Amino acid sequence: MTQASSPEARLFVFLGAAVALSGVWGCASSPTTDEVMRRRSAATAQVPPRTGEIRTIVIDAGHGGKDPGTSHFGLKEKALVLDMARRLRTLLEGTGLTVVMTRETDVFIPLSGRAAVANRLNADLFVSIHVNANPHRSISGIEVYYPRQSTTVSSHHWPPGMTVSEIGTPSTTVNQVLWDLVLRKSRVRSRRLASSMCNAMRNGLGAPCRGIKPARFVVLREARMPAVLVEVGYVTNRDEATRLASPDYRQAAARAMTEGILSYINQVNAQHI
Ligand SMILES: [Zn+2]
């Protein structure tokens, strides 16, 4: 067993033990994921990995199955994002990257199971795809989210009326503080990936990118690697819904996401960020 010498390495060992005991990431093994892991092992055996190289990307099509996501103008989020995820996979695989999907069909996957797929594979990037909705139907455009550092609030600072279950247990809070330390570098990279994707989608789609934003979404905060969540437009906006309904536009969106990811990879390779 390798000696864990750095503080970050020791934290990983501690967290690994804590997680194993608590079962927080106790996602059941699926044949699909195991098959992917076997394929990845085989690929790794053929081509020795190089330090810092980005090889494996997990694409997460949001929602699925009993969870349709948002629905407007006859469009269902779960179907739109799965279609774009498949297109993105094809384009990324064409560049030689290994791509794993959290879902390939219309199935329900719990939120915590999504990042767990990427963590189990030790993937290099995690990209979750969604479409947005807003009661103000004039709002349109793309948004890209990256993991926000958690804020720890002691119990005497809790808002009145809040319960332990709503805030999180003390042990969860301790774990979150440790995760924040471990994942600091990953968050910096997530922000760069978000920025790269925002720019590429603005250029590729001619649609406004409303910005990159930090968020505490479950799928982002549990990923151990750089992770972003892309909201590819608002289906509550009639014009944007019309564009999203077009396969050509979804292909363009996938192409723009690919450009954003490749641009980020080039930055990482050039600057070792
Ligand atoms: Zn969504």
Identify the notable features of this structure and list them briefly:
Aminopeptidase, six-stranded mixed beta sheet, 273 residues, alpha/beta, binds zinc ion, 10 helices, disordered N terminus, globular, two-stranded antiparallel ribbon, 16% strand
Descriptive report:
This protein is α/β, with parallel strands linked by helices and 273 residues long. It has a single domain, classed as Aminopeptidase (3-Layer(aba) Sandwich), CATH 3.40.630.40. The chain contains ten helices and eight strands. It has helices at residues 7-22, 31-46, 77-94, 111-121, 164-167, 170-182, 184-205, 218-221, 238-244, 247-271, and strands spanning 56-61, 71-72, 75-76, 98-101, 125-132, 142-147, 209-215, 227-234. The strands form two sheets. A six-stranded mixed β-sheet has the order 4-1-5-8-6-7, sandwiched between helices. Helix 1 (7-22) runs antiparallel to helix 6, helix 3 (77-94) crosses helix 10 (247-271) and helix 7 crosses helix 10 (247-271). Mean pLDDT is 79; it is low at 1-33, 36-51 and 152-170. The structure holds zinc ion. Zinc ion is lined by residues 62-63, 69, 77, 130.
